[in-house]
Amino acid sequence: MELQGERLIPASVDATWAALNDPAVLKACIAGCESVERTGDDAFSAVVALKVGPVSARFKGDLQMTNIQAPNGYTINFNGQGGVAGFGKGSADVALTAQGEAQTLLKYNARATVGGKMAQIGSRLIDATAAKITEDFFKAFEAHLQPAAPE
Known about the structure:
Blueprint: E1 2-9, H1 13-20, H2 23-29, E2 33-40, E3 43-52, E4 55-69, E5 73-81, E6 87-98, E7 104-115, H3 117-121, H4 123-145
Antiparallel strand pairs: 1-7, 2-3, 3-4, 4-5, 5-6, 6-7
């Protein structure tokens, strides 16, 4: 599976970078996320409950950042285990480019593979679910970084 795209984030590159590396922000923005904990300078562990078609599972996974070029980008490597539901692993390249002072263009290119029951579901359903999870994440992430409206 491969997902790629770009989003215009309503925040500076520095604010976007900080949010992408903040466990509390990630937990709040990832649908079904039960926990995100920093396990090292460039590593996190997470627990996410997902439903893909008829398969529901809690995935426990590790995230490791490599190729770090703060605050302009990195590669996120992930590996998640969902028990009898199977596993998912892959990576995503993320690049941030300033678009003026208060906006950032975020480009991503993600590659992933799944195994176990997840692999039996069918690639179209998995691709559609991954696209929805990605869209939901970015909507929540953009809302989190949206400047507060004046009262």
